[in-house]
Structure formats: C-alpha cells, structure tokens
C-alpha cells in the first residue's frame, strides 16, 4: 500500500505552536516522518536489532510514543527470547486506533498491548528494552528527568534504552548549519519552502530539542552506566543507554 502524501502545510498558514498528533497527521504520518526525519528508516530497523540483543526472557519491551507502531513492529519482527511482550504507549487516540489495525496484519508471535496514556503516567515494570523514538522531545523539559528516572527504576539490570531525538548544538554555527541541512533534506524530499516554514512554526514550543550533552547528563543522573550516540544525521540523533 502506498502512503498517503503529507501536504498538511502546503497551502494554509500555520499558527505557531499548533502542531498536534491528530487525525490529519495520523493519516499521513508514514509519509510525513520518512520525508522529515533523516535516517528514520535506518533507526527504526536498528531499533529492532538492538532490542533483540538486549531483550531478556519473560521481560517487557516498551515503545513509548509508538505512533503507528513502526518501532514496535521492528522489535516484534526480530528474534526475541521466550515469553517477552511489547507494550506500546501513545496519548493520541488517532495514532493508536490506526496502530491497532496495522499490528493486526502482523503474524509474529510476541504479544503487543497498546495503552492510550501519557507516558509520564506510565509505570515501567520488569523492562529489558525501552524505546523513545522521537517522543521525549514532545514532553515538557521539566518532566524529562522524572521520566528517565522512572524508566531506570522499572528496568532489569543489563537492559537498554533507545532514545532518538531532534537535537540542538551549542556552537551557533553548527546549529544553523544542521537546521539548514535538515531543511535541504526536506526540500529534496519534495517539501516547499512554505511547507517547511509552516511546519517549523507549528512545532514552535511543541517539539523542544535539547543538546546531546543535556541528554547524556540526564541519562547519567538517572543512573544508567553506559550511554552514547549510535546514530546521527544532521540534527537527528539516537542514543543507547544501558542499565
Ligand atoms: C514523532 S512520533 C513517534 C514516532 C514513532 N516512535 C516511530 O518510531 O514511528 C511522536 C509520538 O509521541 C506521542 N506522544 C507525544 N507526547 C506524548 C506523551 N506525553 N505521552 C505519550 N505519547 C506521546 C505522539 O502522539 C506521537 O504519536
Ligand atoms: O518535521 C520536522 O521538522 C521535525 O522536526 C520532524 C518531526 C519529528 O521529529 O518528530 C516532527 C513532527 C512529526 O512527528 C514528524 C517529524
């Protein structure tokens, strides 16, 4: 099936800060995210690979901010030890309704439970893998430390967190360069300058990126023993952290 093309920002002037994961966005999401996030397909595929390395028998794998279940499916379709289950969490009902339909078409055995919830309210329990793929960036900055601490508390020793985020750079030249390269990537994927500007406006104060140094510091403070970047393309990076 071909993805429905994202032209949400093609002709309307977006109001600042009004981006939401509503029905309109959920409908075009696979096309939107692939054309907007450099490395999306690679990071999703490697999430399954990393999960299969760290998952332990009888444990739970969490996909926090699962949207349409791309990372959930990637984990489910990799080899996992006996008696694992996956919990996908999202606070958008538009996303979760579609996610359920997509997951129903997959025949791999690992059971998946979907939860319509704010991830800041979710108690992580007996986890070997916790994935936050482009989700923490939408959680208010002041709540992010408690989220990471809660995840740490609910994980088995030796478990892994995969954290993918849009990031900023301390060096103003590098920050401007990476924002520019990201916009060039979007242009190359068929977005117009108006669409790029409109989406940027809509994401203002909704998606709040931080530096890699801030993420690493928060992860270390939460107690994780090892953490580093395993993938980066322009201002999109993915980290692994091990308990
Ligand atoms: C960019 S999408 C994630 C993409 C997805 N992880 C993937 O791999 O395709 C961000 C998702 O996080 C969800 N989200 C944002 N804030 C959330 C929160 N506080 N609690 C739960 N889900 C949240 C949104 O509804 C959206 O579906
Ligand atoms: O389009 C952008 O500029 C983005 O920052 C990409 C991004 C993301 O990182 O989550 C923003 C919102 C949509 O969910 C899809 C992609």
Automatic annotation (TrEMBL):
Residues 63-159 form the Methyltransferase domain. S-adenosyl-L-methionine binds at residues 40, 65-67, 90-91, 118-119, 133, 200. GO terms for molecular function: carboxyl- or carbamoyltransferase activity; S-adenosyl-L-methionine binding. Its EC number is 2.1.3.-. Keywords: S-adenosyl-L-methionine, Transferase. The keyword S-adenosyl-L-methionine applies. HAMAP family: Cx_SAM_synthase. Catalyzes the conversion of S-adenosyl-L-methionine (SAM) to carboxy-S-adenosyl-L-methionine (Cx-SAM). Belongs to the class I-like SAM-binding methyltransferase superfamily. Cx-SAM synthase family. This is Carboxy-S-adenosyl-L-methionine synthase.
């Amino acid at each position: 099936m071909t993805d429905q093309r994202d032209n949400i920002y093609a002709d309307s002037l977006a109001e600042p800060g009004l981006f939401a994961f509503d029905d309109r966005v959920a409908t075009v999401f696979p096309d939107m995210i692939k054309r907007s996030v450099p490395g999306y397909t690679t990071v999703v595929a490697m999430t399954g690979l990393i999960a299969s390395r760290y998952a332990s028998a009888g444990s739970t794998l969490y996909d926090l901010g699962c949207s349409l279940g791309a990372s959930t499916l990637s984990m489910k379709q990799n080899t996992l030890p006996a008696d694992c289950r996956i919990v996908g969490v999202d606070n958008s009902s538009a996303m979760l309704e579609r996610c359920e339909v997509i997951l129903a078409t997959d025949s791999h055995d690992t059971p998946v439970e979907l939860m319509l919830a704010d991830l800041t309210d979710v108690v992580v329990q007996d986890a070997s893998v916790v994935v936050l793929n482009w989700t923490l960036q939408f959680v208010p900055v002041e709540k992010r430390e408690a989220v990471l601490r809660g995840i740490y508390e609910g994980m088995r020793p030796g478990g892994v967190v995969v954290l993918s985020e849009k990031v900023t750079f301390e060096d103003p030249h590098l920050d401007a360069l990476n924002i520019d390269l990201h916009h060039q990537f979007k242009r190359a994927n068929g977005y117009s300058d108006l669409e790029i500007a409109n989406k940027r406006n809509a994401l203002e104060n909704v998606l709040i990126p931080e530096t890699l140094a801030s993420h690493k510091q928060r992860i270390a403070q939460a107690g994780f023993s090892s953490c580093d970047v395993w993938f980066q393309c322009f201002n999109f990076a993915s980290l692994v952290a091990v308990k």
